[in-house]
Hints:
By secondary structure, this protein is mainly α.
Amino acid sequence: APAIALAADRLLPLPLGLDVGIALMLSVPTTISSAAVIAVNVGGDQLWAVFLTVVTTLVGSLTAPIAVSVILSADVDIDPWPILGEMLLIVLLPAALGYGVRTLFWRAPPAWLGLIPSLAVLAVVWVTMSSNAEEARSIDGYELLLMVVAALLGHGALLLAAGAGIRGMPVQHAMPVLFVASQKTLPLALT
Length: 191
């Protein structure tokens, strides 16, 4: 992903500020919840999806500050340790607790509970967009077009790379790899 961010920064005439946003969006770890939620909704293995999300978030938390510094040719001071601590608290702890509760009570939850993760992702997007409505209105059409093109090219490149890597994998493992590898932190992209 950082290589794709570097290519986008070098190839697209992004104004200052937008180049930082695109570099950050393409360099940060995968989405913490939405990639796993989407992967499960298309038939992927839930435990595998969560595992991939946690691993890529751990690795990305350490590599993203370095990648953004290289891409922008600037010294970016991002301390990865608070990000890792927050990730452990927000992702790993609830995942472990949920797995433990499911193992202990081994009862199938009601079907409507399966909607909660998708609704939670939509709520995060809504809140993030609402809190940045003024900034979004101030973006002119050309800059908006550049952002959309950069984001689509970045995600398309990530999908192609992930698609090449999943050949021969069973569907329940391929879908999480495809979505976890190609999704990015949506709330960060919206800010």
